[in-house]
Amino acid sequence: MGHLPTLFIATFTTLLAVTNPLEVLPIFLQLLEGKDQRTQRRTAFRSCLYATLLMLFFMVFGTLVLRAFGVPLSMVRIVGGIILVRIGFALFLPSSPGTTVFGGGSVGKDEDFSFVPLAMPLMFGPGALATVLGMSSMVKTPISNLLPITAIILAIVCSMAVTYLILAYARAILGRIGPKGIDAATRIVGFFVSAMGMGLIFHGVVEALKVYGIIGVS
Which of 2, 26, 39, 82 sees the fewest Cβ atoms within 10 Å? Predict the structure, then answer.
């Protein structure tokens, strides 16, 4: 039972760091420029709902597909960790001036951005997918161990709830911390994402060495 809070906190913090709503925030305001607050909050709710459903879908069916093809869960952790480390370095290192996650182009007045690009790929991208699969791979028998799976699901819901609150009050938050504050927070987040990725890689390598008999099982 002691590992359940650890699993929840690790999944929650990693998802929140990978999703990085502070980085999504200026893009969200750019896409919904000229919209009233009610429309902004409705779009924020829909995008977070879509991202949550995508995470839950891939947590269940992604793990099943990997098991069906005989992909060891240790390999899932290693690959997921590599992806998180790469994303963490990308967040930590300075980006080119004027570059944003969302490409250029005209923005339609009545276009709905809740699914694309907000939910996917801004919220649910490779990092979120790697986190969900990596954390769910920590549960060796998910059917009989419902509590760890419940902890992961709760962490997904909580991280998306925090993301919604940040987007719902996007203008107030951006006005207080400013672009430099967002940049500083993004770099700090990148450091912790890389650290979580290295943790997944370490656990995956150790488990793989045990599975293939290279080191003894303690």
Answer: 2
- Could you please report the per-residue DSSP string of 2-66? THHHHHHHHHHHHHHHHH-HHHHHHHHHHHTTT--HHHHHHHHHHHHHHHHHHHHHIIIIIHHHH
> 35 lies in a domain?
yes
Total count of domains within the chain = 1
pLDDT(106) > 50? no
The predicted model scores a pTM of 0.76
For residue 18, what are the contacts with CB-CB under 8 A and spacing of at least 6?
84, 87, 125, 127, 128, 131, 193
Query: Where residue 181 sits, what CATH number does that domain have?
Result: 1.20.1250
Q: Is residue 140 part of a domain?
A: yes
What is the distance between the terminal CA atoms of the chain, rounded to a whole angstrom?
Answer: 20
How many Cα neighbours within 13 Å face the side chain of 130? 28
